[in-house]
Amino acid sequence: MTMTIDVPTLLLIFCINFIYITLNTIRFMLTMKGFRNLAPVLSVIEITVYVVGLALVLNRLDNVLNVMAYALGYGVGVRVGIWVEDKLALGYIMATVILPSTDTELPKLLRENAFGVTQSLAEGWEGERLVLDILTPRNQERKLYALVNEAEPKAFIITYEPKYISGGFWVKRVRNSRFKRR
Predict the structure, then answer these.
(1) Lesser CB count within 10 Å: N end or C end of the chain?
(2) pLDDT category, 126, cuts 50, 70, 90?
(3) Strand pairing partners for 122?
(4) Could you give the CA distance from residue 149 to residue 130 in angstroms, rounded to a whole number?
(5) Is 91 helix (H, G, I), strand (E, B) or coil?
(6) pTM, entire model
C-alpha cells in the first residue's frame, strides 16, 4: 500500500489550523486584557475556521501526513499568536524599580518622558534605597527599561500586569481607554 502525498491538502490543513490557533491565542489574550466586545467577535471567526480544519483532517485520517500538518499548524499558530500579541502590547504594566542610591535624577527623567512615578524610601540589605513605582502602557515598556538602564545600570526592575486599577494619576486615562474597548 503506497501513501500519496497531496501537497495542496496538506498546505490547506496546515494553513487552516495555523489561522485557527493564531486567532485562538489572540482571542485568549484579548479576553485576559478585558476586550469584552472584540474577543467574542474573534471567537466566531476562530470556531468557523476550526470546524473547517477539523473536518478536513477527520475526513482524511487514513493519511498520517494530514494529522502531522494539522499538528504543525497548531504549533506554529501558537508561536505566531504570541508574537502578534507581543507586538500589539495591549494593557498596562506596573514596574517597581529599586535603586541602589537615593541621590538620583531618574524620577525626574522619567516624569519628563511622560511616565507617572511614585517614589518612596525603603531599607535594603545594604542600606537605604529609592523605590519607584511606575504604571505605564505595555507599548512603552521597552522605552521605560532603556531609560532606567541608561540612567541607573544597577537598578533592580520587576514588572507585572495589574488586574485592577483604582485611584491616582492614571485612573481617568485607564478608564477612558477601557470603555473604548468594550
Answers:
(1) N
(2) confident
(3) 129
(4) 15
(5) coil
(6) 0.63
